Each structure stands twice: as C-alpha cells, then as structure tokens.
Amino acid sequence: MVVSFLRKNKIQIIFGFLIVLLYFLTRLFNLLSLPIFTDEALYVRWAQIAGQDASWRFISLTDGKQPLFIWLTMIAIRFIDDPLLAGRLISVISGFITMVGLFFLGKKLFGNVWIGLISSFLYVIYPFSLVYDRMALYESLVSAFSVWGLYLTIILVKSIRLDVALILGMVSGFGVLTKSSNFFIMYLLPFSLVLFDFKSHNLIRRLLQWVVYAGVIVVLTYGYYSILRLSPFFNVIQEKNALFVYPFSEWIQHPFEHVYNNWRALFDWLIVYYSPPFLAITIGAFFISKSYFKEKVLLSLWFLLPFLLLLLFGRILYPRYILFMTMSLVPLAAYTFYHLYIKYKNIWIFAIIFLISITAFIRTSFLVLTDFSNAPIPFSDVSQYNNNWPSGTGVRESVKFFEEKAKNQKIFVATQGTFGLLPHALELYLNDNPNITVRGIWPISEGPPQEVIDASQKMPTFFVFYQPCTPCLYKGVAPDSWNYKIVLQIQKAAPDARFTVYQIQ
Predict the structure, then answer these.
(1) Each residue of 194-235: pLDDT tens digit?
(2) How far is CA 285 from each of CA 122, 151, 335, 492, rounded to the nearest angstrom?
(3) Cβ atoms of residues 481 and 446 within 8 Å
(4) Is 0.85 topped by the overall pTM?
(5) From 101's CA, which of 70, 113, 434, 455 has a CA 20 to 30 Å away?
C-alpha cells in the first residue's frame, strides 16, 4: 500500500523534498551574517536569564511581551553554545512549520496537492518570510500559529468536530502566549462561516454545535492567556500594546487622523515585500476561475481585516507587523499559478508568466542572503537590522576584543544604555566571564559617570558607544569633553553610524 502510494505520487514527493531542501538551504545559509538586532539582544538575553533563574520565567512581561518565544529560546540555549544562533534557529523551525501549514492549507481549501506544494514553494522564496525566518524575533512564530489557526478553523467549519475545536483552542492559546496579534485567530472565527454549509438538512443543530465549539475555543484561548496572570507584570502587556496601537478610548477622539500616513507606510511595505507582479497574480485568483469563490473570500478576509484594523488603530508601525497577515494571500497566488497551467496547457507560457512573477522575489531573496544592506526591502528594515545604530554591527568584534583583554586581568566595560542592544548583547557573551564586569549607563552627560572614573583607577575601563545621545555630535561617538582613547571602532553602513569602544584614561 505504501509502495503504491509512493509510485502514484512520486513527482509530488520529489517536488516536496526539493522544497524542504531549498527551505533549509536558504534559512541556514550564513545564518549569523546579519548582526544582532536590538530586539534580538533583548529576547535572547531574557531567555538566557529565564534559563538560569526560574523566578524570571516571565521576564519578558516586564516589557509587555508574551513569553512563549522566550521559553522556546531558553530551551534551545541549553543545547546550542551561541545564544543568538539558538534564538534564530527557533525562527527557522517556526518558518518550517509555517511552510508545512501552507501546504495543508492550500491542499485543504482547493482540494489539490499541487496548490499546496506551490504555496510552500512560494513561501520559501518570499523575501518577507526569508528575512524573519532568519532572525530571533517573534514574527515567524506568530505566522506559524496564524497559518495553522486558519487551517484548523477551516476544518472546524467544514466538519463541526469537538476534537478539532480543542486542538484549535490549544493553537490559539499558544498563539496568544506568543503575541497579541494571534488573538485574530479567535476574532476571525465568525468569518469562517462563509464556508458553512447552510443547505444542510440539520442546519440548526450543526450551527449551534459550531457556536458551542467556537465558545470552547474562546474559553481555551483565554485560559491559556490567563497563565500570564501568574506574573505581577501581566498588566504591562496592555500598557505596551497601547504604545503601538491606539486604545479605542483614544482612537475615537481622532478616528481618521492617522489613516493616510498609516496607509502610505503599510501599503508601501506590502508592495515592496510582496512585489506588484505577485500582488497581481494573487488578485488574479478571483478572475482566472470561478471555482472556490468562498474559499478565496475567506483567505482575503484573513488578510484584509487585520490589515484594515492596523490601518485604523496603528500608532507606531513596522513592516514586520503585517507578515502574518500576508500568509493567507500565498495560497491565492498558488491557485492562480496552478490554473494558469491548466488553462493554457503550455509549459512554456506557464514558465514565462511564473518566472516574471517571481523574479522580484528571487532577486530580493538573493540579496537578503548575500548583501543585506543593498537588498530592495523597506528602508526601515534595512536601516534597523543592518545599516544604522539599532543593528549590532561591531558587537562580535568587541566581544573578541574584551575577551582578549580579560585573559589575565579584570576589566570594566560600561555601555551607552541600560536596555536594548547594549548592554544585553555584550551580556549574552561576557556575563559568565569572572574577569569582565558589564554595566549599562544612561543618561550620558558631559563627563564620564563617577562609577566609570572610579573603575578606571583600578583596572582597564572601557566605554562602548553606538547610538545618538544629547552631548554627542555623531552616533556612536563619546562627548569631546571625556578623557579617552579609541581602541576599537566599527563603521556601520550608514555614514554617521558607528560602534566605538573607548578606553577611559
């Protein structure tokens, strides 16, 4: 039976194997080439602390961040020496789970294995997913729960089964333990009724069953979320969310004041990452075939509704916030590609359209892997992750420098800032070294802090600058009034951004 299945589906199995291979090649290639980013330093350092002290398992809540990604990274750190690599591998695995979920989503919705396989392939070459599958950030894990939440939502509305509701409640629960964005798994449940069979002879009973099971999902979701109440910092989540998304009480006072600017930012990021040809292919799913109209509407809603809510309520926005939303668009593009081949039955016509549509993806993904600073992705992402002060360019060089200096003596390392890239990126690698003391300092004044002056009289003392500050003329440069000498300086891609290590005289 197994042999018969393998023979019958040989081409699909080979294609699936090649997709998996391509996925891991693109995600693992030079995985540490991108410097550690500010948020990565925070998350991985939290994971390191949580792994060392059980009383700090909810440490991420001190900054209003849910802890599941931190917990997973905490486990990975136990087996992987480099903490940044451990965190990034969690995203690599999360992206793989998302890719597999898209295969099942495309296959389930459109009843075709090839649409599922094409969905997975498109995910692999999608620059948006490539960037975040290679970073120790929440986004890939959020997307994984989002895709599987949608897949199980579709199974639930078609089958009306309690076991599916229980599994979906678990996925939704773990999702909200990752990030508040995953509440959309629960919020969007009613829209799945677009696939409900309203012509069923036992309509009322099945509809009531669905309502009850939806209630089970809501209860389970909030049940999992309530785990966070064990921490006294639970309320910080709402406070942190309010910094990025307007609460309704504030939004109602100026409901459309920021819509235009939000639209410009969100649409620009979508077009840059998704590319105009691919967006056209996605929209083309509604025109190339009249079949599966309801399924296409459902996928569109899963993108449009969160996108519109972010458009209306967004306060501080970054491109990564829309990554999980775009996942539901990928099967639509796969549907179009498949029906292009079916419609024309000409491999050359299909190949030309396919290559034209994905050329931007391939070019961008290639540059993301080989020349990130020049990759045609949104400026804010290039700037934050590689070119400007939030990137950790210089961290690895400084770690080696400090380790060398501390081989036979004690040293004191002060950093510009108490929260963020520094001191956390240095603490990741130096905190276990008994010869090195790392201390964050903020704010920066015209003269060195007394603690730094005192340390400089006892041992070699260094101060690391990397970001703008009031008394500093340039980013990453100490005030001129300090008595110092530069011992290490790394120029970042942005002309006025540098990572500088000073020795205090």
Answers:
(1) 999 998 888 999 999 999 999 999 999 999 999 999 999 999
(2) 15, 19, 6, 43
(3) yes
(4) yes
(5) 70
